[in-house]
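Onboarding guide, step 5: your first structure request.
Type a short instruction followed by the sequence, for example:

Predict the 3D structure of this protein.
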Amino acid sequence: EIFQVYHQAKYINEIAAAGKAELAIPYYVNVWPDYPVTELPQRQIDTPGIAYPSGGAVGKVLGLWKALSPSIDMIGPDIYSADSGVYQEMLKTYLRPDNPLWIPETGFGDNFSKFFFYALGKGAVGFSPFGVGQSGWWKISGDYPTKGQTRNYALIAPMDREIAQLEFDGKLKTAVEEPGQAQQELDFGGWQATVAFGFPQRDGQRPPGTKDAQGAALVAQLGPNEFLVTGVDASVIFHLPGKLPWMHSEVVTAEQGVYENGVWKPLRLWNGDETDRGLCFHQKPEVVRVTMGRF
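The system replies with structure tokens like these:
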């Protein structure tokens, strides 16, 4: 396998270098990864050439590929496992100081849609469900619904440059629902955000979670007391560290709006009944800029 890695990486690097001499754009390699054996029902031998093509930039030889192919700007895994643990480990493996995180291929079904938010939370520069084109979604078998992926792009596309900058500045965090984890905390230093998944969320009861554990939320800090917030089947409520919500804190404004050509355009103010249990996001793509106050 190392023999294959050496010659494939050097050859691909030569091709990329020649291409860059003509057109200096970023070049990437996408990878058929080395899945755990449990994810390989038809290839139950973790052997190069059987479980995965030999010589590719799988995790265990990623460092060699980076050293041997300096003309390649990004190396990204094609992830078709909907196992959350496997998916997160793949993201962790390919996120390196010398390698921007980039998902060039992934599953298109709704069961993959929450991984978009995991990727955003880790600063990914791209996330591409396989088979998106003018002819619609490519379907391997059956007529799978793809509402989740469509919703994600409708939500982020109008503010993709702002999101990219917030990621680059380290100001953006995400919370993603997992089975049995219907509530999570995001830490912004002087403020904490409690994210709860599923509705209805009743007083004195734990949040119910969603039926398929596909809830997600995105929170980005715009200023000391100001945040950009959105989500799917989630509520977000801010509080001071060590305090419950509304203890020495309050919502000053919660402004729903959109970004147009890089400029925030407010649409309406959310009133107290819309914020007293947190900012609640169902399936509609809504974005809120919230300013918090303390006393």
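Each response can be followed by summary notes, for example: Helices lie at 2-22, 62-68, 84-94, 115-121, 147-156, 160-168, 272-275.
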